Every structure is written in structure tokens, then in C-alpha cells.
Amino acid sequence: MEFDLVINGGRVYLDGKFSACNIGVAEGRVAALTPEPLRARMGGTSLDAVGRLVYPGTIDTHVHFRDPGRTDKEDFGTGTAAAAAGGVTTVLDIQNNIPLTTDVDVARAKLDEIAPKARVDFGIYGSVGVQNLDRLAGMADHVVAYKAFMTKSVGPLTVTDLGDLSKAFIALRGLGRVFTIHAESDAIVQVAKEGLPDHIASHVKSRPRVAEWVAVAEALELCREYRVPLNIPHISTGRAAMLVGRAKEEGLPVSGATCAHYLHFTDDDVVAGGAEWKVNPPIKFAEDREILLQAVKSGVVDHVHSDHAPHTREEKSKNFNAVPSGIPGVQHQLPALLDLAASGRIGYEDVGRLLCDGPARAFGLRAGRLYAGSPADIVIVDPAAETVSSPSDLLSKTGHSIWCGRRVRGAVERTILKGVTVWSRSDGLRESVRGTRVAAQV
Ligand code: DOR
Ligand code: ZN
């Protein structure tokens, strides 16, 4: 067999565990997975992966790339460049650009705008608001999932009333798409934020843990009633993770995700770091972090996404109250999880489950798995290398990140999309192959 690319000597994440295995790629697909050493065709590429871990290209189910309309913060080219550098080969992009994706015409226009810029595969969410409930079904063929905010975060669209949220569930029934709900209770946030000083330490008080507990419980009960597959993203509290775990045990069609920042940091880091660390939901307490770590290890929380939410440096350097919430993270979540594996808090297999199988299963994507005939979307990592990012390494437009200057053990070495290297640690970004739109069906 003639291989365009071979990867020899690595340990490959296959069906939940690592196997000593070599990979042959032909015409953008995995053509061989074998313990036998493989040779590339004349003019092909042969990579030595001894000492490396080889994962399927990872999936980030929750990024905000701001294209079109807020491309001063990020555009689809820079966002997907950062994804490629972070070992991500599929991104699901959410509203919080202008216009919001409220109907099929906007969805179509957005796809036309972003597709030529995509450096990795992509899908988009449809926005759910009180105003567009009658237009949700009409965009099902263009979106991979839908998203609602139970309280205002960034962007104007919210569904704060439970009656309206019920209507959204009813509108989404039978579409075969996941409903992602930003679960913080608006009523509780409105009370909690009153009279707080203009200081970063107020943030976690203004959006307290109980706001997440209550909203998650409400969303789960609506899921129980209406049976629309539900995703609770960016879980920041231990108790919310436990609620999702219990709902899964009861057989509800629900998935739960958290982010690397909730697994690494606590409120102390936020106060020390300042407004750059302002994010919704806020980073919580040491006790939450511990439970979340257990929850990702046990599978109660089934995947990790970045919630990549870029804002400009100017916006992030205002006084706390005026600073928009959100932190960029698509480039750093894989190294951040490798670091947790290096210190034994999770396993390297867990990294594959959390960034590949878990997100694919939750959203019904045909990605995140290597098998004979699968797309050759692959990331090679060096678990022994260190990543210490500086602003000049960042491919996001933001030019800042809470991960800059931090030492994490584990580094992305090369990201391959459809058999072609799109980013490597030695050469950076390559102008090679374009990402394409993915389909989802749950
Ligand atoms: O901190 C956040 N930023 N949380 C969100 O829910 C939205 C995001 C954004 O779009 O900036
Ligand atoms: Zn988000």
C-alpha cells in the first residue's frame, strides 16, 4: 500500500487505551494501524513518534470565535489557527458575534463567511432566544446544536423565564440536535450582584454557586420532561457535576462538560490575577476543583471544552465592572490536561476520553476516533516536553491568556487534519488544507 504519511513508534489512543501502533495515511484517511513499521511512498512524509502519544484530533465543543461582526476580538482564521496549535481539529462555534445566529438566513451567511477561513473542521450553534422560538427548527440542517443563556453573560440573548425555556425545549424536540444551556439562575444573580464593590473579588459573589446549582437542576428537570438531549457546559461547581451525574444514572439524555480553568485554578488565582480572569461562570473554590477533578476522572463529567471567549486587551484592562467576561483557551486546553495527567490527577487515557470520545458522543459527531478508514485527524503530543506560553506564541487575536507564563508539562507537537500537517511545534502554522463543516446527529 502507498502511504502519503506514516507515523511510526508512537503510542496511539485507540478505543480508550494506548497501543504501540504505527499509522499509515493515504488520501487523507487512516489506511493502516499496525504494529509493523510502515514506509511512506516516495515523496511522502515519515514521522518518528517514539516517546510520543498520538491522539485523534481533539474536539472543542464550545468556542466563541466572534465572526462575523466582532472580528476585532477574533475571526475564524485566527480562532482556528489557535485551535490547530492546541491540537484541536474540530470546533463548535457559538454566538456572541453580530448578528446572533437566530434563523436559517443568518446561519447560512455565517457559514459562507467562516468556511473559507477555517483551518480546522467546524460546526456552528443556533442561538435560542424568546424572540426566535418559531425559527429554531428552520436552521436545524445548518447547525450542530443550539444554545441558550439562562442569565445574561456576554451578548444580549437570554431565556430567563422557565416558561420560555420550556417553549424552547418543545421547539427543539425531535430535531436530533443537542440543546446547550448556560446554566446560571438569573433571579439569583440579580439579587447577588446588588451593592458589591467594583473589584474582581466581587465576581464570584455576584454569580454564586447556588446560581449554578439551581439553574442546572431546572434545566435537568426540563430535559426529563421534554427529552431533548441536553448539554450542561462549563460546569464550575462540584455540586452541579453531581447533579448531572445523578441525572445520567437516571437515564436522562444529558452530557456535562467543564473547562481546564475550573480544573486548574481557584478564586485565589482570580483575585491575584485580576480582571483578565473574569469569566462566566466564575472560577470557584478549592473544594469545587477537587470534586470536578474526580468527576472528569470518573466520567460523571464526560468532556472538557475551552469556552474560548476572546476580548481585546483594551477591554480586559478596564475597571472590573466594565470588563467583559471570557478567557481565551482553545490553544491551551490539551496542554493543560496533559499537565493534569503528568501529575497523576487524571490519566493520559482520560485526556483522550475527555477531548475525543466524550465530546463526539455528546454531540453526535463523527470525529474523535481513529480506525481504518477514519479521517486522518491526528495530534501528536510530547508528554515529557513543557509548554510555557508567552503572548508571542498565541495565535488568537487577543494576545493575552491566563495560561501565559505558566509551566505545564506536556506539549502539542503536531496537528494533522485530513492527513496534512496544519501546525507543528517546529514550523508553526502551515497554509495547507482547509477545515470543512461537520454534521451532528443525536
Ligand atoms: O465568560 C464568558 N464569556 N461566558 C460566556 O458565557 C460567554 C463568553 C463570551 O462570549 O465572551
Ligand atoms: Zn460559552
Characterize this entry briefly.
Helix content is 29%, strand content 24%. The protein has helices at residues 76-85, 104-114, 162-172, 186-192, 203-206, 209-226, 238-249, 260-264, 267-273, 286-298, 313-316, 333-342, 348-363; strands spanning 3-8, 11-14, 17-20, 22-26, 29-34, 40-48, 53-56, 58-63, 88-93, 121-127, 145-149, 178-182, 230-232, 254-258, 303-304, 378-388, 407-417, 420-424, 428-429.
Description:
The protein has 442 residues and is an alpha/beta fold. It folds into 2 domains: 110 residues, Urease, subunit C, domain 1 (Roll); 306 residues, TIM Barrel, CATH 3.20.20.140. Helix content is 29%, strand content 24%. It is built from 13 helices and 19 strands. The strands form 3 sheets. An 8-stranded parallel sheet has the order 8-9-10-11-12-13-14-15. The site of (4S)-2,6-dioxohexahydropyrimidine-4-carboxylic acid (DOR) has 11 residues, from loops. The site of (4S)-2,6-dioxohexahydropyrimidine-4-carboxylic acid has 11 residues, from loops.
Descriptive key words:
alpha/beta; Urease, subunit C, domain 1; TIM Barrel; 8-stranded parallel sheet; 13 helices; globular; binds (4S)-2,6-dioxohexahydropyrimidine-4-carboxylic acid; binds zinc ion
Q: Into how many domains do the coordinates divide?
A: 2
Q: What general outline do the C-alpha atoms trace?
A: globular
CATH architecture label of the largest domain: Alpha-Beta Barrel
Largest sheet strand order = 8-9-10-11-12-13-14-15
The number of E-state strands comes to 19
Q: In angstroms, what is the radius of gyration?
A: 21 Å
For CATH, the homologous superfamily of the largest domain is named as Metal-dependent hydrolases
Q: What structural class is derived from the secondary structure elements?
A: alpha/beta
In the predicted model, the low-confidence regions spanning at least 5 consecutive residues are none
User: How many strands, what sense, and barrel or not for the largest sheet?
Assistant: 8 strands, parallel
Q: Which molecules are bound in this entry?
A: (4S)-2,6-dioxohexahydropyrimidine-4-carboxylic acid, zinc ion
CATH topology label of the largest domain: TIM Barrel
Number of helices: 13
Query: What is the average of the pLDDT values?
Result: 97
Query: What is the highest CATH level, the class of the largest domain?
Result: Alpha Beta
How far is it from the N-terminal to the C-terminal residue, by CA? 36 Å
Helix content estimate: 25-40%
Q: What is the assembly state of the chains in this entry? A: single chain
Q: How much strand?
A: 15-25%
